[in-house]
Amino acid sequence: MLLGSGMRTQTTSYFARLFAGDLSAFGGPVTDEAVAGHIRAEQMSLVLGYSVGIMLANACNAGVLVVALWHSPGLKLALIWAAIVAGAAIAFGLQSHAARRITKPQFVSRRAMHRLVRNAFILGAAWGTVPVAFFADASTGGQLVITCLCSGMLAGGALAFATIPIAAIAFTAPIFAGIAICLGRNGDPAFLLIAFLVVVYGSVLLRSVFVNSIAFARRVMRQIEAERTVRQDPLTHLPNRVAFNETLDAALKRLALSGEEFAVLLLDLDRFKEVNDKFGHPAGDEFLVQIASRLQRCTRAAEHVARIGGDEFALVMANLARPEDALEIAERFVAAFDEPFQIEGRQIVGATSVGIVLAPRDGSTQLDIMKNADAALYRAKKAGPGTVCFFEETDDRSSRDRKALQSDLEGAIARDELFLVFQPFLDLDGNRITGFEALLRWQHPQRGLVPPSEFIPIAEETGLIHEIGEWVVRRACATVAEWPEEIRVAVNFSAAQFHNNGLLQIIVQALADAKIAPHRLEIEITESMLLSKYASAASVLNALLELGVTVALDDFGTGFSSLTYLRKLPFSRIKIDQSFIRDMLVQPDCAAIVKSVIGLARDLRIGVVAEGVETADQLEYLHQIGCDEVQGYLISRPVSADRVLALLETKKLRATYAA
Ligand code: C2E
Ligand code: MG
Ligand code: MG
Predict the structure, then answer these.
(1) pLDDT the model gives residue 530
(2) Are 180 and 274 in the same domain?
(3) 80 C-alpha to center of ligand 3: Å?
(4) Last residue of a domain, one of 204, 229, 254
(5) How far apart (Å, rounded) are the C-alpha atoms in residues 21 and 171?
(6) 347 and 209: one domain?
(7) What is residue 599's predicted lDDT score, i.e. its pLDDT?
(8) In the prediction, which pLDDT does 199 show?
(9) Beta bridge partners of 313
(10) Which of 95, 256, 259, 479 has the fewest CB atoms within 10 Å around its CB?
(11) What pTM does this model have?
């Protein structure tokens, strides 16, 4: 029983494939249904292309037949036959002409192909009746016309259905059958020769149809493959930016045509670059592949997340009923990162932020939608990993604001709007100031004082950081030259600055121009700088260290905090991030971290600075646990260069603060 039903399904599916024009039924290439549907669309489009001409030929041939049989007894029947065939042909021709004007579909169902094969058979059968019904009673001339018409229809049919063998067979087989019946009834040996010729022509025709259709299918498959590569991200196999733009375009067209609303979700991975840099590109790639598959699982069946940039993903949610639906998917995206990723035997934690725009509410052009999605995403990222933000009017303002700030920053050095302030380091044992950190300030003519947290990222994004960084180091060196010999100056460097090959030269030149000893300059870098991406950073830093410049690891504890960094370079100092100092007297784990970092620094024989000391209690505690130096508002806020000397004059600082 089981076997029987199994076999039946197999045969059914074989016939289904056969009548759907599927070439695998004839030993052609095997394809999945999506590709088969696409091939059918191409086949159908070709047939529809010929159909008007073919239908005209049918109507015309039917007329010719009537004329040829004008004096034969079968005229009445021929007239009825011709009226039906010509009428059906004209109707079908007009219908397919109309169908062709609608845009070419990408997929045609099996059912549509079945209908085509059925229609081909009906038309073929109509022509097959001609030799059977009219040949015997026709005059010699009439017989000649019938022979010509049948041959013409055979050849024309094979040509029209050259890419669909089953339709070619459905059309020509009844005509062959009609000819065979007609010739068989007649004993004339000449007709045997005709029969022989018909068989030869028929075989050649069908053989050409097979060869042509298989070549055609292969060509379409190659084309599909080529189009797929253009639209697919080779790493994650998700649709790429090209495909995403097409989907967005289609959604915008539907919006214009029928008012169908949609949402665009834009995702940016948090700290992906750090993962890439820390664990290497193969691990970064694997990370992306796993993320892609988790994201894809969060969407609705028919929708695909696209990878539109290195660590940027996007989704068009068509036919959006409620904004909450978009929020739900965005929250699913965020939740997809709850579990850590297993990569090369390690557990890696990831996160994403999501910006959502609703169309048409937030825009109805590609440009507006993507710009606003970016703005929403920017706010989401600022709010921290795993945040979802809908676009708001204020985002637009803040993104315009950012652009304005960027163009103002371009001329800031030339207009002398940048200046440095200096914040002291206090040595706890000696109770004296050992140096100052140079902190950059921007006095904007309209906005007033712009904090570095706002303009340094813009400078980094635009590359202005190189020019600004050079200005900072030159100015810091020139300023420290005026201070006592034992006082150092610390200058912050962005990772991006190490992309500049001339950086070493700039620093050497700044030291030379200011005529200061290299050990008076300290460079502050953060952990992200030491990652493999900035391989050149290590060589520049080593060269600086050889020169005698010291290097401090800033904001220690906020990055990957891998202790291996401490082995990579001979740091002269670690700066414990202010977040630990702020909480160390209220949170025991912070105190434990601070204590162990100080212990570690002591064992490694490197200095340790506590950043952000604001209270006397913090200062006292840090002194007790053996911290070398402190920096913070308690000691002094950053001051202008001309107040530095006065600050140095102040004696017994710690005693004053501790009191
Ligand atoms: P940073 O290097 O960690 O600098 C310390 C920041 O903490 C400074 O902020 C400083 O004013 C602030 N601070 C110091 N003591 C206290 C305190 O007791 N409490 C609190 N709440 N804050 C304190 P600022 O000047 O706004 O600088 C922020 C960041 O901007 C710096 O962090 C540094 O990463 C960056 N930056 C500043 N100047 C430059 C520069 O010239 N180049 C580069 N690349 N980055 C710079
Ligand atoms: Mg710093
Ligand atoms: Mg810091």
Answers:
(1) 66
(2) no
(3) 97
(4) 229
(5) 13
(6) no
(7) 92
(8) 84
(9) 267, 307
(10) 259
(11) 0.56
Residues linked to residue 551 through DSSP beta bridges, in sequence order = 523
Mark whether 66 and 156 lie in a shared domain.
Answer: yes
State the DSSP string of 412-480: TTTTT-EEEEEEEEEETTTTEEEEEEEEEEEEETTTEEEPHHHHHHHHHHHTTHHHHHHHHHHHHHHHH
Which is it for strands 262-269 and 312-317: parallel, antiparallel or unpaired? antiparallel
Query: Do 217 and 275 fall into the same domain?
Result: no
* Phi, psi values for residue 240, rounded to 5°: -100, -165
- According to DSSP, the residues that pair with 438 across neighbouring strands are 422, 491
Amino acid 20: pLDDT: 75
Residue 651 C-alpha to ligand 2 middle, in angstroms?
A: 25
Residue span of the structural domain in which 516 resides: 423-431+467-658
Divide the 659 residues of the chain into consecutive groups of 10 and give the mean pLDDT of each group. Answer: 39 70 76 84 85 86 92 90 90 77 73 90 93 89 90 88 91 91 79 82 88 89 85 93 93 91 94 82 93 92 89 93 91 93 89 94 92 93 91 81 88 94 95 96 93 90 91 97 96 87 92 96 84 64 91 82 68 92 91 92 92 96 96 96 89 46
Distance 525 CA to ligand 2 centre (A): 7
Please report the atom of ligand 1 found closest to the CA of residue 491. Answer: 41
pLDDT of the residue at 286:
94
> Looking at this protein, which amino acid is placed at residue 328?
E
How close is the Cα of 611 to the center of ligand 2, in Å? Answer: 9
Residue 45 lies in a domain: yes
Probe residue for ligand 1, chosen from 458, 475, 492, 618 as the CB with the greatest number of ligand atoms within 8 Å: 492
Mutate to test the pocket of ligand 1, among 421, 436, 437, 439 (most ligand atoms within 8 A of CB): 439
- Residue 641 φ/ψ, nearest 5 degrees: -55, -35
**Segment (H or E) for 555:** strand 550-556
What atom in ligand 1 is closest to the CA of residue 459? 44
pLDDT at residue number 100:
65
How many structural domains are present in the chain?
3
Distance of CA 494 from the midpoint of ligand 2 (Å): 10
Residues 575 and 476 in one domain: yes
Whether residues 619 and 524 share a domain: the answer is yes
Lookup result for tokens 């911290």: 627
A 10 A CB-CB count for 512 gives: 11
Ligand lying nearest the CA atom of residue 575 = 3
